Amino acid sequence: MKKLKLIIPLVALAFFSCDNYLDINDNPNQATESNVNPKLTLSAAQTASFSPLVRRMNELGSVFMNQWGPNVNSFTGGYAEEFGITMSNNFYEDIWTSVYRNTYEYSRIINFQSADYDNHKAIAKIMKSFYFQYLVDIYGDVPYSQAHLGVASPFPTYDDDQAIYRDLIVQLDSAIDMINNAPSTTVAVGAEDVMLAGDMSSWIKFANTLKLRILLREATKAETDAATDTYLTDQFAALDQNFLNFDLTINPGYSNGSDSRQNPWINLMWELNLSSAGARVERNTYRFRRASDYFAGQLNSSSDPRRSRLFTTNGSGNVVGVEQGSATAPSDLSGFGPGLMVEHDQDGYVMLLAESLLLQAEAVERGYISGNAQMLFDQAIDASCNVLGVTPANAAAYISAINTVDGKGYAASADKIEAIMYQKSVALSCINGLESWIEYTRTGYINNIPMPLGATSPTGAKPMRLMYPTSELASNSANVPALSVNQSFTTAPFWKN
Q: What's the CA gap between 402 and 417, in Å, rounded?
């Protein structure tokens, strides 16, 4: 009996394309009069903005980094645009609409007319900076200073991407100052903060870590640009090295009570209820996505203990992948594994401890901050293993084994930054794939990632940015910067050296 192949182009996978999870507003430029205070809106803002991060942004990065492929044994037509690298104004345009829209909610909190919510406003400043960094990283110039002003600025102008980056540091410093100097009348933050439950000292750690990431994004530019080098030197000298020392998670009360209550990652992959036999019921979005052949080879070649947690494995304990762009694949392709697929109510990850530690390792390696780069590097791998459920013994054995592997272990690598970027790509795999693609664009590592079969890149390489979406061209055409398809491959945000 022939196996039925489903024809599912990526754009038809509505579960993944439509980020309407706990949608909380319609128009980011529409002014609304509301008496709803920040205590009542913070959790909705945090929850709604996280959904596109773990869904579409994660997918884009994971495919571009050649970590995911389609299950060609059961589906046809998937990832055609991604593998052909067919850039257009419609390509992943929902990232723009969802992220830009959701940052509006943070602006509402920041601008709320009351002096009693300094801590809520500080949290909103940090979260708005977190997501605006990604808007710049993906698009370059974006509306910023005139964003979210409603009728006062219905057609916001686009700000220079470097100017935005520099102001994000100012905003984070402001947020830290607001927390440290909140007046006694400030309303306490509690359970409405579904990330840190009002632990303001931890919010300072997150702000410092975000500053570290923003500054390091300019590190390769500083190698040849004296002004950037001076700026980074001054900023790092003033940077408080009180960074995240835990996995930063979000959980507003995820459950299988309804689609809108599920963890948004799990909501894509599993039906709400078990089968009559008590088994998980997989959605097509789970059955479609499989490991890529390239990434499977990377994990298998070093016997990475995370492989059986990131993906399902065969009888030999190996991940089985599909070559991107190929119409054929082994029958036992690997799907997402038990380290990623836990329960309907599992936490979401906003920033991993592993990422914090690898950022610190890079900063030490570049001479920006003090510390032991190899210790931070090894701790990051251990933290990555821990979050996926790898035993401490297996994590320790892997760290020891790769000490002799160039490009993967710290001690043996001629280029330490390359090893840091490789381990970051594994640590963030399937959790925040977008961050890995941005770091790949910034540094050029990992330089052996193959292009998909049939790719038609004008440069022979992956794009360095997305094009401005059709929705923005239609609604704000006078201000959208001109950007051709070729320019999405040849120009990048300002931080690209």
A: 15
